[in-house]
Automatic annotation (TrEMBL):
This is histidine kinase. Residues 265-319 form the PAC domain. Residues 174-201 form a coiled coil. Its EC number is 2.7.13.3. Keywords: Coiled coil, Phosphoprotein. It catalyses: ATP + protein L-histidine = ADP + protein N-phospho-L-histidine. The keyword Phosphoprotein applies. InterPro entries: GAF (IPR003018), GAF-like_dom_sf (IPR029016), HATPase_C_sf (IPR036890), HATPase_dom (IPR003594), His_kinase_dom (IPR005467), HisK_dim/P_dom (IPR003661), HisK_dim/P_sf (IPR036097), PAS (IPR000014).
Amino acid sequence: MADLTSFNEQKRLEALHSYDILDTDAEGDFDDLTQLAAAICDTPISLISFVDKDRQWFKSHHGLDERQTDRCHSFCSHAIQNPAHLMQVEDAQNDQRFQDNPLVTGSPDIRFYAGIPLLDSDGYALGSLCVIDNKPKILNESQQKALRTIGNQVIDKLLLRKNNKKLLLANKNLMESNIKLKATEERLKESEKRLKAAISAANLATWQMDFHNRQLSPSPRMKELFDFNADEPMSCEDAVNQIAESHRQQVIDSIYSSFSKVEPTEFEFPIIGFHDKKIKWLCANVQSYQDMESPNISYLSGTIADITERKLDEQRRTDIVGMVSHELRNPLTAIKAYADLVNRLAKKAEDGFLSDKMSKIDSQVKRMETLINGFLDVARLGEGKIMLEKSKFDLANLINDTEIDSLEKITSHKIIFEPAEICIIEADRNKIEQVVVNFINNAVKYSPDESVITVNCCIQAGFVTLSVKDQGMGIPLKYRPFIFDRFFRVESDAMKNKKGFGMGLYICKEIIERHNGQIGMQSNEDVGTTFWFRLPVALASA
């Protein structure tokens, strides 16, 4: 462990504290990254750990309830001693550094650890992104590469968070100074100086526009981002024309909506360079205000950041998920083939014990296939490559087929399929069936054995609504707004033994919304949950 009194360690701690990240609330962006790391590395635990003076504190703690541990027991404190390399401990019980560590001899029973140091722009190791398992293992090259990429994402989010806080604070100070008519010119100049320093440090573009005459005043950095020469004029129309057509109207609507909001409006969009025709992704913050001397005159002002690299990293992350999923398919197919062969031989030899074990292997193979298909669906959604093969079919027939399959496979619960009338919809039958099956499987997973699950389908005002109701644990109120988010899982004692990576409902939402439908849920804790989706009924043929 590092000497806590050393000059470099003190500088490292100063760098860590400058981010104001310690003891902050959980944030979905960071939780997405730990869930993704755990999924790709196939570990039950993944942490974003920051190493403080006497402790390691977890900004995100997927698979672990604790928010911090003593630094003297920290694996991550060792990992940051070699900032340029990934640290792997194949079996902590056989490693002299950790074999007597209470985190190894007791909960959470660490055997395997892999951590990539989180280096800020000055090269200080703030902590690590790590994955942990309770059995020995080693990461393959694809998993190591993925962990490094995700670690870079953590640092990018930290830097963006830090720069945004600086900018908002400086902007707030400037606006307060402008509002107070008694402020001296010297104070105004100082505030402007701080704001310009913050904008410069964050490499942000600024602009101002008179809303009535559409006169745009862009900063040199804004011209640079849109690929205009410094001496070239750049009008409001010029800027709008460089926005990709796919997002142009959305940006215009966002700007107009900012007049009715007190808070700044933030949105992301791609542009095409005026000269080089290269695509960039930008993140804009827009604020409206009125001239203090002429209240009838309204202005818009804002900042623009280049987020192209972050968007590329997100694409790389999606590519990694797809690549790893594809690589897992081949060995899994071979395992399934061998398992089927052995199962047939066991049945022929009337070996009940072996036949039972092979059936369990087959069940786990099917579970892995479901997980891999889920990862591939997430990757395809991120790339916009999920294609819908629409046709007209009777939803009642799909429900009937699902009923036959469910009653044959599910014996732990009482599933009631209420009668459904003929209902023709135009949709991708396989994808709609995937949503219905996911709803039913979730109801089975999160409700007690022998309880009742009800599947209902009704038509009203040109729309059909399908719902699946259970008598399960329900969803706490604080988690309900995020239940359809990618990789989101409820963190509670009741969920510790529930397997999954939080992709199913996210995929269901994307499927339904790509059919121009709606999806939702109602839940009461300890009473049950109802998931539903609504689709338009197909128009009758002429």
